[in-house]
Specification:
CATH superfamily: SMI1/KNR4-like
CATH topology: SMI1/KNR4-like
Strand order of the largest sheet: 1-2-3-4-5-6
Radius of gyration: 17 Å
Number of domains: 1
Strand content: 15-25%
Structural class: alpha+beta
Largest sheet: 6 strands, antiparallel
Number of strands: 8
CATH architecture: 3-Layer(aba) Sandwich
Length: 213
């Protein structure tokens, strides 16, 4: 069984009804057609105890693919760091998987820093990568341990660090809480922009306040 077929077979039921036609915005990405075929097979889903979340094509949902990528949403907080990216899935800690208009393949977008790294050349290769190391790629141990202790995550919610990992927060469930995904990404965007030009090892003092006009 191929990677994508296997991933779909172990995933949840689709989040939204199957899409009828490929939306125009997907045509800007080299793998837009492949992503659409994935969503035709299962239009958004969760896997690995909700650690992996693939966004559906759904006009009426704030976490549908198009709404999740709207400039009026969280992504504007990342300024140019999010330019040309289409975020189609996320792990339990909100690192995003995305397509890019600037390069082919699939990237991982580190939410706390806004940095990207190439991880796969196709949707099939991405699915195989997820399956081969789902603990690391989806953050499954955090999802499993949290839900073992606290019960199932509400639909759509993600785990957030109390102290950002980028700033030395511990990678354990005592440093995690359940939060709103949109607000979580806005906070991470602010962190990324405030620290983007700092040298490694620099002392950090985060400002939690409205941005100056």
């Amino acid at each position: 069984m191929k990677g994508l077929e296997t991933l779909l077979s172990i995933a949840s039921e689709p989040i939204a009804p199957l899409p009828v036609a490929m939306p125009e915005f997907l045509r800007s990405y080299s793998l837009g057609g492949e992503l659409f075929r994935l969503l035709q097979a299962k239009n958004g889903f969760y896997a690995f105890e909700s650690a992996l979340h693939v966004f559906p094509l759904a006009d009426d949902s704030e976490t549908g693919l198009e709404a999740w990528n709207a400039l009026s949403s969280w992504r504007c907080g990342y300024e140019d760091l999010a330019d040309g990216l289409l975020f189609f899935a996320e792990d339990i800690l909100q690192d995003q998987f995305c397509l890019s208009t600037k390069e082919s393949g699939i990237l991982r977008f580190y939410a706390e820093t806004g940095q990207t790294v190439s991880v796969a050349n196709s949707v099939e290769e991405w699915a195989s990568m997820i399956l081969s190391d789902y603990r690391q790629e989806t953050g499954w141990p955090f999802a499993h341990d949290w839900q073992t202790k606290h019960g199932p995550l509400p639909p759509g919610k993600r785990l957030m660090p109390k102290i950002p990992f980028f700033l030395g927060g511990d990678y354990n469930i005592d440093n995690l809480w359940v939060g709103d995904p949109l607000e979580g990404m806005r906070v991470k965007a602010d962190l990324a922009i405030q620290t983007r030009k700092l040298p490694e090892g620099a002392q950090v003092r985060l400002i939690v306040a409205p941005k100056p006009q």
